[in-house]
Amino acid sequence: MFEEISVSQAELNVILSKKESYILDFKSKRIDAGKLQNHFVAFANSDGGDLYIGIEELKSQGNLFRVDGFSNAEEANQMLYQLLQDTEPAVEGVVAEFLITLNQEYILHIVVPKSDKVHYNSKGECFVRLNAQSVKIKGEKIVKLAYAKGFYRYEDTGVEGVDIEDITSSKFLQDYLSNVNSLQDPIKFLKRNRLLKDEKKSKITVAAALLFDEQPQEILSTKCGIKIIRMQTTSKDYKRQQLSGIDVVNGPIEIMAKDSEERIFEIIKNSTFMINGGEVEVAYPVETVHEILVNAILHRDYSIADDIHVTIYDDRIEIKSPGRLPGNVTIDNILDAHFSRNPNIVRIINKLPNPINHDLGEGLNTAFKAMQSIGLVRPIIEEIDNNVLVTISHEKLKSYEDQIMAYLENNEWVSNKVARNITGEGSENKIKRILQNLRKANRIEVEDPNVARAKLRYIKKRD
């Protein structure tokens, strides 16, 4: 049995006022179950989303929507069965519930999570979301989707035309074996650590090249370096004369990470920064730049032919890495997620006595806390096109109250848990007091006073 929830007219109006998007779709109860499965698969293959069945568009009235729900939950059984059982492989973590309106109409609400697998409908077809549509993809696009999710690992791909001896005799492999106190023969080490490919183990993998080749970018068919760009402006719409310089850093991963970090802080030390017309002294926590840079290097999608871009503006640093977030990692859960697109690279680097990396969530938590400790706002993580962009801003941290109210400018509600995520404050009681103070100041109110305290949500004070 699926949960059945009665909704008020006000709650229903909020749903109907939403616009269909990359993560939201309304469908008529009369939709063919096979066509609905296309949208279900598309959400799972993309960033997840919400499907509402029993809401249809009034095209003659400017994209407005109305409820035309099921008369009971049993009417949707066949549809649910096809979605949950006939999708290959089955999508895990799906939440399905029925929303019951005042007119006793049943709306089927399905929350589809972002999946770390590639899913197909019952016909073997693959779909992804593109804007507010579900689009079928084939061939190479499915392979790229699998790489993006970490389902196929590009790091395990064999590299053509490279002599294994170039790696076994590499100074960087020799240094690595010495640092981890290993007396293994280099060939044996490569075999044991899955760094050789094909049945005869006659090819090195992409991971081996990235870790131990002197110049990986020269032997791989994709870009894998770091571009460090200095822009003498705060504007994204910069002029050519504001471009102060471009450095390109290459080399094996560990060396590249250390050299890039050193160059970033060298540029910051030797630069003049102008914010709001005045010269200011700019400083960023070493931990923040280090963790975000290393995360970009270790978790980027190396199948994409592009470098990591580090752009140093007068008021911020932007670090853009190729590829969207891997597996089931989302913007919302990234601080708690433990997933790697390149697990072999991460594991081998982590064996070093003083490794450059932490777990994905652990490292980013360190970066966020370091910013908060010197009174600067938390980094912003975004997915833009086929990249992950992290912005480290030189902006003073607002009060918790101001951060919560700023969040409510763009979101319908906030809870204690959400407020803790926004502010980085770990104390539930402290946030509780702040929410109470905002209520006393008539800046927020409880959305529904009848729910349990643990489920309280707050909205901006209504006029």
Automatic annotation (TrEMBL):
Domain Schlafen AlbA-2: 20-137
Domain of life: Bacteria
One Pfam family from the record: SLFN_AlbA_2
Transmembrane segments: none
Record-linked Gene3D superfamilies: 3.30.565.60, Schlafen, AAA domain (3.30.950.30)
The protein, known as: Transcriptional regulator
Organism annotation: Hymenobacter rigui
